[in-house]
Task: structure prediction
Amino acid sequence: MKALQYKRIGGPLELVDVPRPSPGPGQVLLRVTAAGLCHSDLHIIEASADDYRFGPLPMTLGHEAAGTVAAVGAGADQFELGTPTLVYGPWGCGVCRECSYGRENYCTHPDGVHPPGIAVDGAMGEYLLVDSERHLVPLGDLDPVQAVALTDAGLTSYHAVKQSLPRLGAGTVALVIGVGGLGHIAIQIIRALSAARVIAVDISPDKLNLAREVGADDVVIGDSSAEQTIWSMTAERGVDAVFDFVGAQPTADLAGRVARTHAEITVIGVGGGAIPVGYRRLAFEASVRSTFWGSRGELWEVIDLARAGRLHIEVETHPLADAPQVYARLARGEILGRAVVVP
Result:
């Protein structure tokens, strides 16, 4: 079968022929119908030899996956052949305390979480081997190309927003920093689940236009005047919840400076920024958290939102052979919404 692999540190992505996997006990083999490209993939292929902490190479990329059941191993009997599914990505041990609550994204096993495309072979190929059928969610009649981003971009955004819902009542303001694959979904989730006014910040006018299209009440260009603009927009009150989908130092600084008393700041982006916490470093009783992906139960909830018509994912589709060029565009910030490979 064809697969897009990262074969050596610093090397190019290569489209190669690899053996089709065979499912072992409890495993499920999917014929991939859609695979999403993510900034997290760039961290894998841009990591130096000293910083590389992902799966053994060569490795097939792709941690957002949709597919139909092609074969099952012994004991895997919950899904009939041909069933369309989405794949829950943060594969944990399944038996620790966090996993018992469905929070496999925070698995406490010493070996950690093993997502496809990050720790083991992923979905940028014709077939994907899923370690356990508990990591599959029925897709039903949803379009896999539209839905595949729900497994990470949607789930990660939903998990982050859900934690701050108690802060997002009537008269409150939510700030979304970065209107990319995750941010444009987060705007819709906030609108669907809360009464908050939504302000979106980005450096790209095109992405700010997308923010308005998906429900942002106000948009702010992410330049040196963004902080003052946000204070003016909020009548000098600041914002009640910040969702930073960039996570670089400039966006972290902005998040800390516009957060009001009792605000919650969630850093989702992996840009390496940090927010200092201490006496008079932030507004009083403001809190900061970082999050990683979401729980299995929350993926079902995200899918329910999509099925109810509350989420629209902006996607562009590409054949597997074009994926290296699409990753280059992603690195340059040229993707609007989410890029999806259709093998």
User: Anything to note?
Assistant: The chain has a mean pLDDT of 96. The radius of gyration is 20 Å. The chain is about 25% helix and 25% strand. The domain at 156-290 is CATH 3.40.50.720 (Rossmann fold).
